[in-house]
Known about the structure:
Blueprint: E1 4-8, H1 12-24, E2 28-32, H2 35-45, E3 49-53, H3 61-69, E4 80-84, H4 89-97, E5 102-105, H5 110-125, E6 135-138, E7 141-144, E8 149-152, E9 155-156, H6 161-172, E10 178-179, H7 180-187, H8 198-210, E11 220-223, E12 227-230
Parallel strand pairs: 1-2, 1-3, 3-4, 4-5
Antiparallel strand pairs: 6-7, 7-8, 8-9, 10-12, 11-12
Helix pairs in contact: 4-8, 6-7, 6-8
Amino acid sequence: MNQHLLMIEDDARLAAMVGEYLGQSGYQVTHAGDARSGLVTLEAQAPHLVILDLMLPDMDGLEVCRRIRALPGALAATPVLMLTAKGDPMDRIIGLEMGADDYLPKPFEPRELLARIRAVLRRHGEGVPAAVASHMRFGSLDIDRDARVVSVNGLACELTSYQFDLLVALAERAGRVLTRDQIMEAVRGRELDAFDRSIDVHMGRIRAAIEVDAKSPKRILTVRGVGYVFARQQD
């Protein structure tokens, strides 16, 4: 069965071009021309990934992303690839903070869009070896690999698929200091730009979800000038 993508984009010509290109690569693409119809389609069809334009006529793309993350059940974890009208770093940071898994500035090459879609879907659906334990526990923090759910004291934490993979990568290497490059390499996907600080945005979101006090983290610690370390001993 082909993977189903939902493209929420008000530029019908662009959507048709992208739909045709991705269709040739084996994807089924549904187009929604505005935010409200896109959200309705998302709930009705549960696509594998959403391609979301930042600028929509009836609602800001960031608000759409926020609403997706607030949906019940598995829908909330639907991967989101956000399209921005320009390469403004703030667009990227805000999008990631709102829960987007990746972003791509316009204009873009269809081949790059395809590569990013494949990378996000791979991160989202990639399994783990059977020999690896399905659960990891660190004090009150529980990471369920099979269900792709993280909870603290039994309460589920809201993380994007990419943030879940980042957390797992850190937890698997608990007690080991990792550079940003090593963390990005561990989750695989796209190459890391040496000046790319988006990893810090994701870490901030993960801390907000799993830490008692994100401003004074006890689980994910910053090692100044190096990177991050996941605490082996936790409450």
